[in-house]
Amino acid sequence: MVVAEALAGIALIKASVDGIKSAIGTAKDIGDIASEIDALFTGEKQVQEARNKKAGGGIAAQFGVDTVAKEIIDAKIAAEKMQEVATMVDMRFGHGTWAGILAERQRRIQEAREAARERARAAAKRQAEIEEMLKVGGLVLGVVIAVVAAILVAMQAAW
Predict the structure, then answer these.
(1) What is the model's pLDDT at position 106?
(2) What CA–CA distance (Å, rounded) separates 136 from 159?
(3) C-alpha span between 69 and 154 (Å, rounded)
(4) How far apart are CA 81 and CA 83, in angstroms?
(5) Long-range contact list for 84-88, CB < 8 A, 24+ apart?
(6) Whole-number pLDDT of residue 115
(7) Backbone angles phi, psi at 27, to 5 degrees
(8) Any idea what DSSP says for residue 31?
(9) What pLDDT shows up at residue 31?
(10) What is the DSSP letter of 25?
(11) Which of 104, 105, 42, 47 lies closest to 72 in space, CA to CA?
């Protein structure tokens, strides 16, 4: 399955680069090739994830010559294709465009991570508040039951 993911990632990278090559000459702005660039990033991520998943496998999966060679070659192909696209984008839209894309992408990823952390903190806070309310409610219920029991005992003793 990991091999299939890596193959899919490399195939996606190659298809994205081909799409960018065919569209970059006529692209009026970066939005014309944005979906291909997104696919390129997705493919690169798949290659990295496949490489990282193998680290959890057995000794043969981690250290097999074909496995190590495939991981290194796939990573180099992905890096080579990313550099090729970077050069094409910078040549078409001006120096620094690719760096701007990478910086904006990283900023958005960081914002998404921070938003996810904030949602997790808020959920944990709500959970803690609910637990505290249940504790207080249980304590109040216990006191009420104790008072009612004491009243019943007092009434029973008075009869």
Answers:
(1) 95
(2) 35
(3) 85
(4) 5
(5) 84/17, 85/16, 85/17, 85/20, 85/37, 85/40, 88/20, 88/21, 88/24
(6) 97
(7) -65, 130
(8) G
(9) 81
(10) T
(11) 47
Residue with the two structure tokens 């998404």: 112
Name residues of the chain where pLDDT drops below 50.
Answer: none
Are 7 and 47 in contact by the 8 Å Cβ rule? The answer is no
Residue 54 identity (one-letter amino acid): K
Q: What is the token pair recorded at 88?
A: 């094409």
* pLDDT per residue as tens digits for the range 18-46: 889 888 888 887 888 888 999 999 999 88
Q: What is the DSSP string of 41-107?
A: HHHHHHHHHHHHHHTTS-HHHHH-HHHHHHHHHHHHHHHHHHHHHHHHHHHHH-TTHHHHHHHHHHH
The pTM assigned to this predicted structure is 0.64
Q: Structure tokens of 60?
A: 């043969």
